[in-house]
Amino acid sequence: MGDTRPARREGARQRSGAHQRGAVVAALMLSMALAALDSTIVSTAVPQIVGDLGGFSVFSWLFSGYLLAVTVTLPVYGKLSDTFGRKPVLVVGAALFLLGSLLCALAWNMAALIAFRVVQGLGGGALQGTVQTLAADLYPLKERPRIQSKLSTVWAVSAVAGPAVGGLLAAYADWRWIFLVNLPIGAVALWLIVRHLHEPGRESSPRARAGREARPESSPRARVDWAGALAVFACGGVLLTALVQGGVAWPWLSGPSLGLFAAGLVLAGVVVVVERRAAEPIIPGWVWRRRTIAAVNLALGALGLLMVAPSVFLPTYAQSVLGLGPVAAGFVLSVWTLSWPVSAALSQHLYRRIGFRDTALCGIGAAALILLAFPFLPYPGAAWQPTLLMLALGAALGLFQLPLIVGVQSTVGWSERGTTTASVLFCRQTGQTVGASVFGAVANGVLAARLGGAGDLDSVTRALDAGTAPESVRRAVASAVHAVYLGASCAAALAFLVLLSVAPRRFPVLADQEDRPSAKEPAEERS
């Protein structure tokens, strides 16, 4: 009889590898849950927070500060994960997020709480980008829909459970517990990452490797473009602040707004100059020179834009026009989080047949028609009508987003995947910020036109909630939300045109490497 010990050792090694990968996936899901729960769980506790700490006039910065920090750090963390590996970036990000959560729970006034929310956001940027990158590192192309559908499910569950958990903690415990609950979850995720995630040594990008070959006497130590990181952070922070606060804290054409936009443009020029001179730029030029990545960047930017219509304006429509309570209005919105992950998980059967681009075109084309149908709903209508549209919209966007993320990650090697993933997520986050500003201005403009120049969406909604507004105001709100949905359908049409005209019909997918958690070969420059 032959010696069976090598076979047994190989079987044990495979079982150990599968166990380790399962533990890392669990850590990624917990990390994603931390980032996904954050905004939804905080939103329902705002009255209790304001009642305890005061600062009603600036409480919106609880969300804006966190969003700004997440958005502007995404490109930085993406490049750092390509330079030093995913594990150290994810560990530092999780630790920062947990530190920010602890500090938020100890906040003594609104200013301190806002500052600590920014600390949370600095960690949240690492969580969002690095989790998505590791998902691609861990699985070969044919298995990636499995992990992506799991992450999508985490987002869906968080969207539904977050407000309920936040409301329960605020009502029956204390609002500080909405931050303290992050600590045990994050601690488990951090322990799993440290114990089970092992990354092999990696080569740097072709540009940096060529530079070292030209300078053989130089140190092999990785170089970090800290000047570029600071410039990107400053530029993004200024421009996003202008977009978030414009039309809210001050008029669009006021001195503060124009000054911030002017400073942002100057800083954008500084970013271009600094990044062109850097050996390892934070935002390398190839993320816009390669057709595939540029097209996905623009398409997901449009996705962030159109997502504002349902996520921000649909609850107002459901309560003010349909007369639903807060819980029922939340359900109307949440149904798209049910169909989105299911559609995303099934999208692999379509993109394996017709390709990533054409699958995404089917999804965004359907989304454009669904969004366009919203303004044609009868007034006041029944709750099942927008609910059905939202269920269909989630299915359409599941077909759109996941094939693009999986596809674009598959066109680059390990040494460029973090930067690529961060680039598309940054564009989506920026699209959401732009969408909130643009569609807010559109809604307020329609209301002003319908009501003779009096009132904005917030004041009108409060009047409707108090039962003091006439029927004409209710119709004005319906018209404003219809206009927003029309704009969202235009954003979907723009994404369709971008993919059709810019993206190649077949993405230039690299040959999948079997050495997990990541591929060894760096990508070449491609058009």
Query: Rg from C-alpha positions?
Result: 24 Å
Shape: globular
**Beta-strand residue percentage:** under 5%
Low-confidence stretches: 203-220, 518-527
List keywords for this structure.
527 residues; 20 helices; 76% helix; disordered C terminus; mainly alpha
Description:
- The protein has helices at about 5-45, 45-55, 60-85, 85-105, 110-140, 145-170, 175-180, 180-195, 205-215, 225-245, 255-275, 285-290, 290-320, 325-335, 335-355, 355-375, 385-410, 415-450, 455-465, 470-500.
- With about 525 residues, the protein is mainly alpha-helical.
- It is globular.
- Residues about 205-220 and about 520-525 have low confidence and may be disordered.
Structure in a nutshell:
By secondary structure, this protein is mainly α.
Q: Mind sketching the topology for me?
A:
Elements: H1 5-43, H2 46-53, H3 61-84, H4 86-105, H5 110-138, H6 144-172, H7 177-180, H8 182-196, H9 206-214, H10 226-245, H11 255-277, H12 286-289, H13 291-320, H14 326-334, H15 336-354, H16 356-373, H17 384-409, H18 414-450, H19 457-465, H20 471-501
Helix pairs in contact: 1-5, 1-6, 1-8, 3-4, 3-5, 3-10, 3-18, 4-5, 4-8, 5-18, 6-15, 10-11, 10-18, 13-14, 13-17, 13-18, 13-20, 14-17, 15-16, 15-17, 16-17, 16-20, 18-20, 19-20
